[in-house]
Amino acid sequence: MIHLAGIEKYYTSGSLKTYVLRNITLEIKEGEFVSIMGPSGAGKSTLLHILGMIDDPSGGQYHFLDQPVHSLSEKQRTALHRQYIGFVFQSYHLVDELTVYENLEMPLLYQQVKGPERQGRVCEMLDRFQMAAKRDLFPAQLSGGQQQVVGVARALISRPKLILADEPTGNLNSKQGEEIMGILKQLNEEGVTIIQVTHSEKNAGYGRRIIHLLDGWIDREERP
User: Fold this and answer.
1) pTM score of the predicted model
2) Is 204 exposed, middle or buried (0-12, 13-18, 19+ CB in 10 A)?
3) In CATH, what number does 2-222 get?
4) How is the chain split among helix, strand and coil, in percent rounded to 5?
5) By C-alpha distance, which of 180, 216, 200, 186 is closest to 50?
């Protein structure tokens, strides 16, 4: 599904290059659950954003579903992202001015899904995550755990092949965090590929493979 070869990310200031990622070569197969760990500044979120096509690498090659992402136009990358990738953020990234229903509907509007199917998919997500009673509430009226459940449902509504989760339980208490990790585990068992960035050893253990980054390099890999 994913093949990275020699991926680098750096920022230039005059003749000086500051590296965030160095020579990342990695393969992730469809259906895997991979955890990325490392100290702050190791390059974890940058790697996730490159995988999600939110950020561009400075060098190297990235193939996603046999598509050469590194040589696609921005428009082509955006289309690929919207069709196949869902993102779950630590800070939820819900739109405050939109209701739960409207937040879930938004990715389908981008995909130009027609009205009746859009309505059906939103209702399916509301039922699946037991949020139907909260469909007309705004994010500020929900707990942190409920907001993150909406974030997961929104990532899932476009039926992605890949979910990228950036510290998905970082703002939650332990009970809420376990609920979110349980949802991600269940999605993986249903065939969705999941890559998460986490500081939590416990959450990392949900993955079948843990990649440790250090100073922008892959330091080591392990299997729990």
Assistant:
1) 0.89
2) buried
3) 3.40.50.300
4) 40, 30, 35
5) 216
How far apart CA 124 and CA 12 sit, in angstroms, is 47
Q: Are strands 16-28 and 2-13 parallel, antiparallel or unpaired?
A: antiparallel
Cα-based angle 125, 32, 218 (whole degrees, multiple of 5):
125
Cβ distance 85 to 134 under 8 Å? no
Determine the 3-state secondary structure of 194 from DSSP: strand
Which tokens is 154 given?
Answer: 């929104």
Beta-strand pair 33-37/193-197: parallel
How far apart CA 167 and CA 120 sit, in angstroms, is: 30
In tens, the pLDDT along 76-134 reads 999 899 889 999 888 878 999 999 999 999 999 988 899 999 999 999 999 988 899 99
Q: How many residues does the chain have?
A: 224
Unique residue bearing structure tokens 């939109």: 98
CA nearest to 145, candidates 110, 116, 108, 170: 170
Q: By CB neighbour count within 10 A (0-12 exposed, 13-18 middle, 19+ buried), where does 116 fall?
A: exposed
Instruction: Report whether 69 contacts 77 (CB < 8 A).
Output: yes
CA distance 111 to 122: 14
